Amino acid sequence: MAGRDGQTGKGRKRPPRILFIHENFPAQFGTFAGWLSTRGWDVTFATAREGVGEVGFRVVTFKPHREVTKGIHHYVAGFERAVINGQAFVREAVRLRAAGYVPDIVVAHSGWGVGTFVKDVWPETRFLPYFEWFYHWPPRDRSRHDPPSDDLEGRARARVRNAPMWLDLSSADGAICPTGFQAEQFPQAFRDRITVLPDGFDTAMHCPGPRDDALLARFGVPRGAPVLTYLARGMEPSRGFPEMMEAVALVQKRRADLHAVIVGEDRVAYGRKLDSGSWRTSMLERLALDQSRLHFTGRVSRPDMIRIFQSSDAHLYLSVPFVLSWSAIEAMSCGCLMVASDVAPVREVMRHEENALLVDMHDAGAIADAVERALAKGDDIAAMRQRARADIVARFDAESVAFPRIVAYFESLFR
Asked: Which residue stretches of 99-220 are H helix?
């Protein structure tokens, strides 16, 4: 590996060079990029996000020069956007190459086109797409709330939607996927190239701690009240928001003292939107809920998120079979008692009766029963909390486990 032993052309020494490409920042790569930088790597991060500021490594930006062609066939609108994104990055890459910059490794978030032309600028680099999700029909992540749709139309759209990832695979020297479940969604041609390497988590930051009554009071939770928590980017069926609200309605009837802290924005991050209104409004209108014991926080800072997890008596993580949320790992790292969907991506990290309580997310009664069991705070619940924390530290700690594994994989590419 150029730079691994310090040797480069003409006998000079330099550190290994890695380039991350992602439309957003810091996304999946920011923390790892910072970690590599502190260990002597020459790190560059290319992103479409502006105004990143000082982060301890070089950040370069790219910007698409135009929007998708108006009136283009709706199957290929996303594909054209990916090509435009790739072109936007290539213009920056050509400038970098002209200045003498040649990375040893490029890791690019796949599906949005940003890494498609990497090997056309740097044929000597090792190009590694980061694959997240392959689209199927019917969708693996379909919710019971999704309306029926045309089968042939859905299949055609899904097939074209995967086209940017096929392009990335055509020039890849390897590939990364963060979980086994996600890797299994890809065809065999992808799986033969994919190495499952979990994202790393700061388990020292995300750790158990005392209940924060001052923070809870700020949200309206009285001192000493049992607290059920739920966190997602948006309020949508993909992450079980309707089912969560149904379960809360049941538990409220059984427990007059229960308060629910619901973190997230009143929007849809994944899946379909309602024709009018929001899922939050719809569920509040549909269910008999004591809204004085429902506390919607909106988005919160990371320190507040951690304190909410530390103050939780039971944490609901409900999801269709889809990408496992980072918040689920972070909640477990904080020692939360997890009441979670019994689906494949969850089972990859949670085991029923060992480090979590797994339930059918469509059975509000079963969810409510599991929440009540968690609130009882028996010895078995305390043991599950401890195992949840221990499992995450052992499998996902960034400093000691995840990041060193990724570096070992990088080094294997040059043997």
From this structure: 118-121, 151-161, 163-170, 180-184, 188-191, 213-219
> How far are the Cα atoms of 8, 289, 317, 388 from residue 394, in angstroms, in the given order?
36, 40, 21, 10
Q: How far apart are CA 154 and CA 340, in angstroms?
A: 29
pTM for the whole thing? 0.94
Instruction: Report residue 85 as tokens.
Output: 């994104």
Task: Tell me how far apart the alpha carbons of residues 63 and 309 are, in angstroms, rounded to a whole number.
Answer: 37
The H or E element containing residue 298 is strand 294-298
| Secondary structure of residue 79 in the 3-state scheme | helix
Q: What is the pLDDT of residue 141?
A: 87
Chain centroid, CA 325 distance in Å: 5
pLDDT in tens, 287-308: 999 999 999 999 999 999 999 9
- 């923070």: which residue's tokens? 215
Domains of the chain: 9-200+398-412 (3.40.50.2000), 213-396 (3.40.50.2000)
CA distance 207 to 204: 6
In the sheet where 357-359 sits, what is the strand order? 294-298, 259-263, 227-231, 314-317, 338-341, 357-359
